[in-house]
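Need a sequence for this fold. Nothing fancy.
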């Protein structure tokens, strides 16, 4: 056989292999049957059949995401700088950003949006139709907050089947808005701040809450992510209590944290600022990343 013939056959075989691969990759599943035979009706055990792929796009856009403006969605919250705000010095530190959490607070099948804004009041937008929102902040009882909010999470704190909202603030009481349901059918849900009653009105340099049953006892816990206090000089207070210290180039746990935890592994953070520490209490590995050298 000539070199040209071999090349031709090789190309044909390669094309057939690609075609078979495409057919198999299109979508294959195993269909179990109880009848005998090997045809489409009798079908033997483990017959491989072809099905079309599920459409992933309608082809209306050349990009994965499409930008929708506030005039289309109703999400029109604009956070402006307030030069005379007591925390105005945050603007130069990156601490001025707010947060967002999404969840179906009214249980109508459409996700709603809560915006933690700093400075200014937070906002709750109810999705009334696909990608169409209305501001229900005042009607939901959320319009009285004045703190510098940094983040929020939606979670069913009271285990009654609907989503509540926990909001973290900087230097002021955190909020825990308990969902009281809708006063009328199809209306916005009502929220009441119960953080003081439930003991979670934490005052710290709070950033975000992370909810989970950490100790696996069936009760919901939460880990509160904080930062150091940033104060304009010369009013900076003494350094707060640090969890991680250093001795002879190695990390140590400062009192009283050393009574409850132990460091099982550590390494220097790539930035050269502090340690990345693996610490263990119950045998389940946890990680604490300390990246500014201040514990």
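Here you go.
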């Amino acid at each position: 056989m000539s070199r040209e013939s071999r090349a031709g056959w090789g190309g044909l075989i390669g094309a057939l292999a690609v075609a078979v691969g495409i057919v198999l990759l299109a979508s294959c599943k195993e269909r179990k049957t109880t009848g005998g035979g090997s045809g489409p009706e009798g079908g033997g055990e483990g017959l491989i059949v072809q099905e079309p792929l599920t459409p992933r796009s309608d082809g209306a856009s050349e990009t994965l995401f499409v930008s929708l403006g506030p005039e289309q969605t109703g999400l029109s919250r604009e956070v402006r700088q307030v030069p005379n705000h007591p925390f105005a010095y945050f603007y130069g530190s990156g601490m001025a950003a707010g947060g967002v959490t999404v969840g179906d607070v009214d249980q109508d099948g459409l996700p709603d949006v809560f915006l933690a804004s700093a400075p200014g009041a937070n906002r709750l937008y109810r999705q009334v139709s696909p990608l169409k929102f209305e501001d229900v902040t005042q009607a939901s009882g959320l319009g009285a907050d004045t703190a510098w909010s940094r983040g929020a999470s939606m979670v069913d704190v009271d285990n009654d089947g609907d989503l509540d909202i926990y909001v973290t603030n900087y230097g002021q009481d955190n909020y825990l808005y308990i969902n009281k349901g809708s006063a009328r059918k199809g209306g916005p849900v009502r929220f009441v701040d119960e953080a003081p009653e439930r003991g979670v009105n934490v005052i710290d340099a709070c950033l975000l809450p992370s909810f989970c049953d950490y100790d696996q006892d069936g009760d919901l816990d939460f880990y509160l992510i904080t930062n150091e206090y940033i104060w304009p000089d010369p009013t900076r207070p003494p350094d707060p209590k640090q969890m991680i210290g250093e001795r002879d180039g190695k990390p140590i746990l400062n009192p009283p944290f050393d009574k409850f935890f132990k460091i099982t592994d550590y390494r220097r953070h790539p930035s050269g600022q502090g340690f990345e520490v693996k610490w263990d209490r119950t045998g389940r590995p946890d990680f604490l990343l300390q990246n500014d050298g201040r514990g």
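For context: The first helix runs from residue 3 to 26.
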